[in-house]
């Protein structure tokens, strides 16, 4: 009887947890970036990254794409910036991606801004995201 009562008591909390499927770990370590598929039945995707605006503690932000089409627009933005020049910006409804060429670090960097947070990543990481999204 106690087990039945406990399971009924914990059931509402279990319903709020939406399981996710990690599609690709773009970057690990202190500044991770993950692309995940949400198992909510609707087909949403999430790009989870550490907010680089908060240095004193770990703050993870989530950029949610409502469907695969919106995720592919993100990949097209990265592809357009790759073909562009330093200073180019891809503006979307809720977020923006800008490109910066750095002489001393060698290569192309991107800055993703969403709400009050941001993260940066290099061209190889953008290529990983683009190839993964294209394969979905």
Describe this structure in words.
The protein is of the alpha+beta class and 136 residues long. It has one domain (17-134). The chain has helices at 2-15, 68-83, 123-134; strands spanning 20-27, 33-38, 45-50, 60-65, 89-91, 95-102, 107-114, 117-122. A hairpin with a 5-residue loop joins strand 1 (20-27) and strand 2 (33-38). The longest helix has 16 residues, at 68-83.
Structural key phrases:
136 residues; four-stranded antiparallel sheet; 3 helices; globular; 8 strands; alpha+beta
Helix/strand/pairing class, anyone? alpha+beta
As for the number of domains, it is 1
The major pleated sheet works out as: 4 strands, antiparallel
Using only C-alpha atoms, the radius of gyration works out to 18 Å
Beta-strand residue percentage = 35-45%
As a percent range, the share of helical residues equals 25-40%
Order of helices and strands: HEEEEHEEEEH
How many individual β-strands? 8
- Average per-residue pLDDT, rounded, comes to 87
Distance between the termini: 46 Å
Number of helices: 3
- List low-confidence stretches: none
How do the strands line up in the largest sheet?
1-2-3-4
Shape: globular
Signal peptide: 1-17
Keywords: Signal
